[in-house]
């Protein structure tokens, strides 16, 4: 593992960092393959959008320079690159933001190949009891306030349940614990509208684009558990794991992976090519 803080090697966080103190930060998690950060421009665009939403400056030039340095010094076949922008407190206490200037963190960690069995045969998942707050101002971006996801992941052992489905406080289906979700019904793909909660994932965007090019309708709208129950198939996706069809969600079983497998074939080279 190698970490840069504002362009310099680091092993700890500064006390003036509001990210660890208040969650006043954004992050991105990218797959690295053969020295290349997959979908880097799209991840930086979402990071820039997040900066605008929480009133933080976006240091694109410095980030790109630091990313290039890490990639060149880390020759692993497969790794995870984590970017984080966290507001500086300037030594002041309280909630008021004293600056728009962020600390920059870039970290690269080698990882094994994702589990091919999950990709091909599907996963077992559960509906989390922990609910996501609805806050339109933070919807779509990847901020560091992840405590609901941490609590949801702790509900069931990951060895038995590879992923969990998360709902909002009003009962809307939002996303997986570490992923976005899609359902298929009558040859149409549906994915939750993320205007009140959830992260608008990059892999989610690629799935939508892939389906639309193939002429498969994709509809973003509010989904409930009734939609999940009536669906022909359900799958999760994110930038690191790819696409995981769901074979079982608590007592629900899915036998069709048809549309998921089609999108998998189109995007497979991203993770396994």
From TrEMBL:
InterPro entries assigned: Aminodeoxychorismate_lyase_IV, Aminotrans_IV, Aminotrans_IV_CS, Aminotransferase-like, BCAT-like_C, BCAT-like_N, Class-IV_PLP-Dep_Aminotrnsfr
Gene3D superfamilies: 3.30.470.10, D-amino Acid Aminotransferase, subunit A, domain 2
Signal peptide: none
EC number: 4.1.3.38
Pathway listed: Cofactor biosynthesis; tetrahydrofolate biosynthesis; 4-aminobenzoate from chorismate: step 2/2
Any GO BP: folic acid biosynthetic process
A single GO cellular-component term on record: cytosol
An annotated Gene Ontology molecular function: 4-amino-4-deoxychorismate lyase activity
Keywords (A to Z) from UniProt: Folate biosynthesis, Lyase, Pyridoxal phosphate
Subunit-structure text: Homodimer.
Species this protein is from: Litorivivens lipolytica
Pfam families in the cross-refs: Aminotran_4
Keyword Lyase: yes
Job description of the protein: Involved in the biosynthesis of p-aminobenzoate (PABA), a precursor of tetrahydrofolate. Converts 4-amino-4-deoxychorismate into 4-aminobenzoate (PABA) and pyruvate.
Name of the protein described by the UniProt record: Aminodeoxychorismate lyase
């Amino acid at each position: 593992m190698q970490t840069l803080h504002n362009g310099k090697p680091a092993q700890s966080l500064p006390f003036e960092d509001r990210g660890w103190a208040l969650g006043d930060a954004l992050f991105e998690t990218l797959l690295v393959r053969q020295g290349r950060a997959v979908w880097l421009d799209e991840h930086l665009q979402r990071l820039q959008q997040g900066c605008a939403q929480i009133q933080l400056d976006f240091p694109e030039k410095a980030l790109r320079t630091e990313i290039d340095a890490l990639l060149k010094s880390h020759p692993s076949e497969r790794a995870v690159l984590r970017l984080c922008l966290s507001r500086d407190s300037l030594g002041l206490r309280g909630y008021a933001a004293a600056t728009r200037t962020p600390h920059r963190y870039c970290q690269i960690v080698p990882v094994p190949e994702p589990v091919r069995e999950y990709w091909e045969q599907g996963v077992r998942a559960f509906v989390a009891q922990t609910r996501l707050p609805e806050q339109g101002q933070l919807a779509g971006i990847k901020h560091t306030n992840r405590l609901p996801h941490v609590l949801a992941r702790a509900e069931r052992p990951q060895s038995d349940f590879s992923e969990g489905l998360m709902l909002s406080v009003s009962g809307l289906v939002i996303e997986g614990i570490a992923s976005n979700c899609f359902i298929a019904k009558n040859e149409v793909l549906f994915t939750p509208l993320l205007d009140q909660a959830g992260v608008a994932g990059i892999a989610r965007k690629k799935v939508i684009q892939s389906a639309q090019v193939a002429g498969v309708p994709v509809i973003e709208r509010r989904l409930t558990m009734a939609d999940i129950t009536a669906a022909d198939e359900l799958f999760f996706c994110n930038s690191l794991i790819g696409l995981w069809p769901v074979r079982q969600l608590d007592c629900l079983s899915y036998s069709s992976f048809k549309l998921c497998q089609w999108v998998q074939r189109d995007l497979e080279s991203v993770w396994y090519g």
